[in-house]
Design a protein that fits this description.
Layout lengths: L2 H7 L3 H12 L14 E3 L4 E4 L5 E3 L13 H13 L6 H8 L4 H13 L12 E9 L16 E10 L2 E9 L5 H11 L5 E4 L14 E4 L12 H16 L10 H13 L6 H12 L7 H5 L2
């Protein structure tokens, strides 16, 4: 619940390794090669199968693989990232952890962002507002709309629960054609849900894919804000990028910044920072490792 509890629970490498072991093998150790459950511990993080002699590490195949920093420092980083309500920047992480290199802090942040989206997560369901928006630097001449240049086009889906904001999904699309919009909706929303859209033609045909489409236009509603919930989310997203990240979201890494925003937004009502810490660690041991070279090439 607080920093003191974090230090008491994960103040040593042994405590961190033991916790990762339980996350990695919640039902007990089993060899990745032969599934044998008997092993010898050959080092702090490595285990040797008694049957086939295969050696596995509690950090191999996770975002911690090949790290040269103590795991307790990683745990502090995860605690700091999840305890900041509005997020943090790589510079902020570097300062709080006393990292000598900004590059290390930047790489860690991107590794953690990759772990914020759980594989196979539940889809949105019920009533869903969907719309597109452009995210990026200011457009010359103040141009707006679907023809805007030099920005990343995103599509946003928002669950509506009793006229309140529920969970969200955000994806980057190449263009606002039905091929790209429909693919995002099918990936993010359960069939049978009501999809609320504006009159853009790219949404036509959703009924043939198992959805109920409700189209709002200025002729069918008495307000200028046709999709108020999704527009609120987009407005908050832009404010988050300009505020927390100081607008420094490069287009090639935008998808991972959006993942972080979704992670935070969908857990905005959580009263337990410790639960967020646990969820991110849980995802971290399921994510394939990535190195700085791979990240910058995205």
């Amino acid at each position: 619940m607080n920093l003191l509890e974090l230090e008491n629970a994960f103040g040593t490498e042994e405590q961190c390794i033991e916790y990762l072991f339980k996350l990695r093998w919640s039902k007990g150790y089993h060899c990745p090669r032969c599934s044998c459950v008997e092993y010898w511990q050959v080092s702090n993080t490595k285990y040797k199968c008694r049957s086939c002699a295969y050696q596995s590490s509690v950090i191999s195949g996770t975002i911690f693989q090949d790290t040269h920093k103590p795991l307790k420092l990683w745990f502090r980083a995860i605690w700091y990232v999840t305890s900041q309500k509005n997020g943090t920047s790589a510079l902020g992480l570097q300062r709080i952890l006393g990292l000598g290199s900004y590059r290390t802090a930047w790489t860690w942040m991107h590794k953690l962002r990759r772990a914020m989206i759980r594989p196979g997560r539940d889809k949105l369901q019920g009533c869903i507002e969907v719309d597109e928006a452009y995210i990026g630097g200011p457009e010359k001449g103040g141009k707006r709309g679907r023809g805007t240049q030099n920005k990343v086009l995103i599509v946003v889906a928002v669950e509506i629960n009793d006229k309140k904001l529920g969970r969200i999904r955000i994806g980057i699309i190449e263009n606002a054609s039905s091929d790209h919009i429909h693919a995002f909706i099918q990936e993010s929303v359960e069939t049978g849900s009501v999809i609320i859209t504006d009159g853009w033609l790219g949404y036509n045909g959703l009924d043939k894919k198992g959805y109920v489409q409700e189209i709002r236009t200025r002729k069918t509603t008495d307000t200028d804000n046709l999709l108020p919930h999704v527009h609120t989310v987009v407005s908050l997203l832009k404010r988050w990028i300009l505020g927390t990240l100081q607008g420094s979201c490069s287009a090639e890494h935008m998808a991972f910044y959006l993942d972080e925003y979704c992670f935070r937004f969908n857990r905005r009502k959580s009263k337990s920072r410790g639960l967020l810490f646990y969820r991110l660690l849980q995802n971290a041991v399921q994510m394939q490792p990535s190195i700085y070279k791979d990240i910058v090439m995205k």
